[in-house]
Design a protein that fits this description.
16 helices, flat
Length: 1521
Amino acid sequence: MAHEENNRTEREASPKYQNVPYAVRVYDIQDAFCYSGHETPAITQNPVLHPPVIDFTTWKVTFTCEVKYDEDLDDGARFAVKFLFDHVDYQEVNDATDSPLNPTRKTVKLDAKYLGEFIVRGTHEWYSKMGKTISCVVQSFWKGFEDKKSREFHSNGYFAGIQADKTHLDVSEGQSDTIKLYSTVPFLCDDNLNVHENLCYIDIGIDVSNKVKPGTNCAIRINAKDWNPTTLRAEAEVKTIYATQDPPDGNHVNALVFEKLPHGDFYHVEEQSKVPKTYSGYTPDDIQVRTIDGGPTGHCQGVTDPHYTTFDGKYYTIWFLGEFIFYKSQARNFEVQVRTWYCGTYGATCHCAVAVREGNDIVIVDLCHVGWGNHQAAYPKITEKKAGEPEGTLSPGVSIYRDPSNKKFEIFMPSATTVVAEINKWGIDVHAYVPAIDHGQTEGLCGTWDGNRGNDFTQRSGTVTPDKDTFGTSWRIPHGTSLFDVPCPEKDDNATEPVESCSCQGGGNINCSFTENVKRNPLPGIDRITTAQKEAASLQCDSTARRSKRSTHVDTFYSDDIDESEGYVFDYGDNQPPPPVAQWPTPTLQITEADAVRHCREAIVNSTMSSVCAELGVDIFAPVEACVEDIKFTEDLDIASAHVDSMKAACTDIAYQNVSLYEVGEDGVAVPPRAVRENLCPADCNQHGDCVNGSCVCFEPYTSADCSLVKGSPPVVRFIPNHGLCDIRRRPCRKTSIIADGLIESENLTCRISDVKIENGIQNIILGSDQLTDATIRSFKEVSCLLPQSPVLQGTPNEREGTVVYGYRISVSNDGENYSDELLFTIYDSVCQSCTSGPQCSWKLNTCKIRGFCFGEGDPNPNNWCQQCLPLLSNQTFSERPVNLPPSIVSPTQIIKVNGENLTSTVVANDPESRPVTITITTGNSHGITIDGDQFLWKTEHPVGSFLETVKVSDECGAFDAQNFTFTTMACPCQNNGRCVPDPNMPRGQGHYTCECPGYTGQWCEQEIDECQSNPCHNGTCVDLINGFNCTCDSDHVGEFCHIDIDDKCGLQPCFPDVLCINVAGGFECGDCPEGFTGNGITCEDVDECAMDFTNDCLYVCENTPGSYRCTCSAGFILINNQCFDIDECAYGLSECSHECMNNDGSYTCDCPAGYLLGPDNKQCIDIDECLVTNHGCENECDNTPGSYTCSCPEGFQLKDDRRTCQDVDECETSYPCTHICSNTEGSYICSCPSDLVLQPDGTTCVVPASAVAPHGSTQAQETTLRPSSSVLTANTEASQDCMKIGCPDKDVQECVEVDGNYVCQCIEGYYLAEGGTICKESSVYDATITLTTINGNKALFTEDGLGTPGSQEFVDQAILMKHMIDKVYESSDLHVLYRGCKVKAFRQGSVIVDFELFFVENADLSSSEVMDAILNSLTINTLTGENDVIVVIPASLDVSPQATTTNGQPWYNNPLYLSLLCVGCAVVATVLIVGTVCLLTSPKRRRKTVVDDSMVDLDMADMSGKSEGIDGPAAEYDTY
């Protein structure tokens, strides 16, 4: 402007301008030359169009056109600029272009919004300009001479649109190529950064022919965030394009056709209006794709016993046992292996298994697992392996199909390779169909596929042999290296991963899959998807040991799709005899060769396919040779059906491969011949039906897909795999396979399930538990039944009583009416149970069974980590965790903030066991610091200084670490009103801050910034201010930066934003207000389109915006595709309810469970303290709990059934605290003793007073009881008198014995004292057996004279030792209140086997396992330990069973038959007694009892028989039986 000022001054000084007022002076044409001597300003370079840039402050994408002009000061030059699109200008762009320019402003921008199609209320404002080359054109002229312009100067061009990295593709069938699309212009979807980064993209739809398939989906996505300003691209991911593998039909030219991008716009806040999206309405250019035909598919087969036909058509037969490479590709990692077994009685072999591998995917179909002798019951096991990934699943492109008969399986690989395994009477027929890529690249039993049969017998070494046996032997697989044997195949890191491809036709006809790029042969009718099971052995491949479901180590593969069957012994043919020699006629049936030929030909001719195949040119009698040979060796005429299938396979192959035979289907697509499809039925319907349209129409009474079964016949179930056992830790046990004959795949195929409770091996079917579940056919002999959720391992011990073994009885029906026999399916928990078929289950050592749940040693309580299963302490309850390391605080203990800051600082704590921790402040915390999780929230104001607080971090078990934290408030060091801001690169709370310095710079804002240094004032003087500046303009310029000519009235933008301003003489004129506004152009007011219905098209809620409007929904709703949908705040976690949330239209309401009250905010639930009012009905104590309350009673009382009032606990009946007499009191009890005994200081035990103890050598009988307490009735009973005179009150269960010279009543064996020692009750008796190996360090030995003789010294010693051990076990167990004693009955051979009886209170209702558990739990390394004795036992030998009781609870002595016999014998007995009495009275020596000898006194025993110790021995005089 200074230059212009000088020029003007010179002109005004000349005579021409003298005395002419400045305001009325005008320039003529000559003046233009005065500027520079040129008619128009001189442009020496073409303008430059700069690439697009995205500005996130204005939220615009713009192109910039730059004029190249040498002068930088305004010399009067002006530049008219237009933007062109493929050399065409558009009015809407011209109107928005800020032109002309001048030397001080040489750039103008193009808003990229003009590139996208813009539609307002159905009217096109402008169309898309994408796909065109943008440029700008400039013309120069002198100011005031707009009509005199220079020639056009054109800039460089810039293509705006979508481009690809390739202009065309050539793709071979079955192969692929890639393209990558990219955008050359950045784009916006909203003026929100989050939307731009996460939700802004364009999806470019693809429409292609059937010959071409794009990978993954039918669209290519470009994300806005991927714009790279350096490469000027936003690139999409690479898209794979496949050429469909189909029958040979020549090369084709196709195209990738891209669909038009939909119209779209968004509301731009700065512009206060809607703007179109850049790519709105744009259609990218097509890309040509040429598909190159790959050639025909190869076919190799091995059928019946087995006859092979190579890819080149060479036919041969070999009979070898073992494993062989059927076909292997040299071009890729693909291989088919087979196993063979003996089939028949003449030494012939057949395939019994086939394994297929492509890349890292392996599928196996196996019949060999049953062995040839059981082949009639053979069912195919279909399993899978994933090389390198034991728990991985098959690649998505791998599919397994089956046909309607469920005997034919097709393994379909992503490469279009197909292997068909067809089950026949003798084994498996194998067919391999391979793509053209393998031509010339095959080896194995299928030969070398190159069109030359002469080299088909190429051995593994590469040499060709004429001998078929030598050739076959060379392809034998070494032992242990096959796909069948190797559980963990090595991963192929170079394997090609399958990629999803799609059929993308117009109109939204889209289908995507991993096999869409390959056409399967539909003719054989193998179209039912089936699944493979994971081999259990392969799951052991990883180094980490398998763990239980509840263990801290969790299996990642937890599925019922697992084959748990054990491995089988396979005959590899090492000792195979020479192949058999057969002759005509056959030895048994005398079949001649002519008979065989005739039979084979008739079987083929009678097939529904024979005439159709013959018309197609198929040699239908080609299989006759193999058929005749098979009959010669097997004498089985039915084998002809397998060769009929071979003819069908050849026919369908030709019909599919020969495209010239195709017919046009109803949808206009060419398909294989209809006659082939309509006559191809499984097994030709077994002659029991007609083949109609490819399906069997069965004659009565036949049914099934091949008419082989009779209607109404239930399946014949054989077994459940894995012996009918299911480990809940291994798999969910929600389905199981049933192996059965006579299965029919129908909608009525059903399983019936009945619940079975299993305890101690006893099965009890739960009545009324029957339910029907879905059944799914897996093969012709296998059906999968869905099962209900069993109670095994459901919940936790805190929640419910569980069970460790449970069963279902399962039957199957084809029609839902006639069911098979039932099979038992057993579910168990292997952590503590070991189960075998039956089921027979036993408890594993070193495990816990807690309320019916299994836990391994060290497993935590799922409801309380502080408790563990520690079997050595208790195997029926959790024990407190013995080792729990405390957490530690690792973060700095100095917390710093600046005055006035709200600080959030994280406390870092480490727990050695990685458990959650709780952080608290244990001191007074008078400074208002709060803790939220692991963060300090310090929001209170404090003066500069420090204070201490103690911070405690603790785990759930109470272990903790505490440290003193220093909290410091510091003054902000920033000067000149600078503000302290936390350093984002440093942790909070450690005193790391930076300064924000408005108008200043330096670390602490100590230096003022001189804003005038950048010369911001174009035509004026700059005055520096603090945090700013002012411009003082010269007399010819105005504006904030003195950049506007004083004559340019529009330069000050006097008009309303976006309104055109025109300078006119003496002022300016404003154009019309923008659309959506009304006014004079200077002042424009917004039109409220929402005020009237006809000015907006909103269906629900209209929201007015400046210049426009937007359609939306009421609060609580969301607009999707012009429809308002309720937002379910409850489902999406948008509510603020603390407990229960109920959605309603447009909002939600909060509710509380019982025991809570909704707070004043109507969102948070507050616990109701039920105990505050009237103790909530509790008679004693009321304890408030979250949401509820509980009543409690003082010691000695318990809650009644109403759970509120208390009642006395009768300890005498429940816990048996006293050894003799127990008297209940209110809240307690009192123990007392008979008159001859005294009470011990413990208040519960009665003993004989010291004065009454018989001296050493006494001959008094000292009877012991079943446990350490007297069995003599107490003194307050009638029986305490001389029972020899008055008898015992209950002679049935009491006997009269002498004690200390008195005759008293005593409970007979098997009864015990009860109710304070007043009556005898019958014991619950259990028979038990256990094996001893070592006694006190010596090997346990059995001899007939020793332990084998009751009453012998050795017998008595060991019996007493054993009794004491057992007594100790039960008296220290949870069963001590029920236990009443033990009696050793006998010792037996087998190391030493002990038979003994265990006595418990009447109706103890203990299971055998509970009785056993007490002994097993007491074992320490298989050892029972007494005070001075140690016995080593075999835990697995322990067996306990309830002793049989008399029918209806009637004692044997009250049995009517017994009483009748007793009466009959009484007379005889009376007579004998009379005679005996006479003899006794006349005897010189009378005595009433046997006198014990000195040895018995030495043993401190009264009876050498061992009766006093509960041991069987020789009958003594007063033994009662």
